[in-house]
Amino acid sequence: MPAVAVVIPVYRQPHFLCESVASARRQSLSVPYRIVVVDDGCPLPETRALGLAFALADRGVHVIRTSNRGLSAARNAGIAYALSRWPDVGALYMLDADNRLTPRSLEIGLAALSKHPEADWVYPQLSKFGMGWAGHVDVPVSPLHTLLAGSFMEASSLIRSRVFAAGLRYDESMRAGYEDWEFWIQAFAAGFRGICEPAMGLDYRYRPESMVRNAARQRPILLNALRQRHPSLFAARTLLGLEQAHHPRYGLVGETGLARFTDWAVRSEGVATEDFADALARSRAEPEGGALPPFLLFADPETVAALARARLIQSTLRRLEGACARGSGWVGLALTIEHGFEPSVGAPGGESAMILVATDRFADLVSGAPDAETQLAEALSAMARVGPVLPRESADAAALRPGAIARLRRSLQICRTAADRSEAPRRWHWQTRTLFDGADLVETLRTEIGGAPLSNLTREARRRLLGLVLDGHALAGLEAVRGLCGSRGSDTVRLHLLHCGSLAELPDGADLSGVDSLDELALPKPGKRPFQFQGQPFDLPEPDDPAWREIRGALAGFDTILIGVPRLFPLLAECRSKGARTIIYRPEVGWPDHDTRILLAFEHATDALIVESEETATHFAAHGFPRSKIAVPRQGDIALLFPQMRAEQGSDMTDHLGRASTGT
After folding, report:
1. CA 20 to 30 Å from 398, out of 114, 159, 450, 554?
2. Where is coiled-coil annotated (predicted)?
3. How far is CA 651 from CA 491, 628, 639, 647, 648, in A?
4. CATH superfamily for domain 3-230
């Protein structure tokens, strides 16, 4: 029984088939293996003649012929043949006819699988000939790499038979390319994982014109096909949950080390103080290695704690991140005379309670000696500043402390001293950087989801994330939601209030109990309002409208989003397409008639409409809103917010993100 079967699909490439089969035949492997050539209905007689010649010359070479159905179908035919002919075969290697194995490819690949029993496949480093290029992919791979950059895993990989025994096959409808990327997404969704073994070796032929080059020209179309095949994996909540789990966005630089986090409530100690300078240097030499988060935060711990108590730490960080991206990579949370602090020398514009800086900008200062002090002064002078957003008469304002600049200077001095003592790390290999670094990942997610800065809230295993988008007219929606959640609310739901308007404008005595975090949304000024419905004008923001970019980022990633602000109704369909359940809350009083009519225009993008009385429900039903989608809130009816919890009433919740990630 062979340990490995090498599957080689071929179509119109007899001149390359000689090389691929010859490379497979000369393997150093000491255990039995077989070669399966799949002639995908090639019209060239040379292909059939060469296949038969190899089979006659070597009993280890098998040739099958199929009608022409494309690369995926040919691979699947080879897989089916190998598994039926050798049921106990340990692994299959997918080798394209225009590529070549190196002499020890199978030996090293099998050794890697033996050493890592948890690995389901092993893929090689990207080394190409013809048009010379090599890409470095031997880095810790996360699910986001698979979803957003999966083509880095070469199809020519050694895959355990258990992957195919689970029913996974190549998508035969994807004939234009990226069928291997789609296969890796399938494998990830099913819980399988791969590793890179650079020494395994593969000679990848890179030609000016090929299927790969043609796929690159159709990349937007093919990527959209991947999204449509795996909507739960590309949902904003899944992508942001995976970012939180594998690529924390921020790093708080403290006295004892660096804490990594995206949500401060779920943080981990990532880098000890004595290792911070080395991690910074490595992030410069090997940015794709993920040594540090893309943003560094300098702040007094009491400032962070005060903002956390005020339920504002996440919204503050998001505002700082947005200003950082718009500016020079530096932004400070300014404390001015309004907060009891007089501006001091060296702190133009006010003391800074926090400084958020892009990691690569901080690294620039470390490597900028002997002019680093001048560069720091210039950076601080040009640094953007935003003020803290606090509810009226917040007691936590007094707890905000200056000193962020002093903390930054101390860290800078430590890193400079370490840099002076030893030579900076260098990129040790000659391959080109292929995978994204932390900053690239943030920008990739912003582009994929369509907003910036993106939500930075926890996607927990046992709590759904509910976004409440309300203004002064619709704050009663908060009470309605608390009633729906009932006694299970704090255990099963995390409430995030996005207030349209300043938090300082919240009514005196507003009941914010049960709210885990607060944010404020500054809606763009109304445009020309060229669209009308039943005579009522409204805006319909374009997907790339920069004025709405921050709003879209703030609304991203919720399991359910409840909106009580009519100007945001045009974004309902976008939220829904990104995986969120969409609910409109219509208060009993406070809405003018024209907002009620606008609501009807977006019924198609609304999963549910919550009203306060049966009379109002009857009114909307009479105007054409489906009665089945209208609800008067009942105490404890949490399934209205999260229908998937209907079967969970009275039982423990399961891991929603885990289900989304595994596709079950």
Report:
1. 554
2. none
3. 12, 26, 13, 8, 5
4. Spore Coat Polysaccharide Biosynthesis Protein SpsA; Chain A (3.90.550.10)
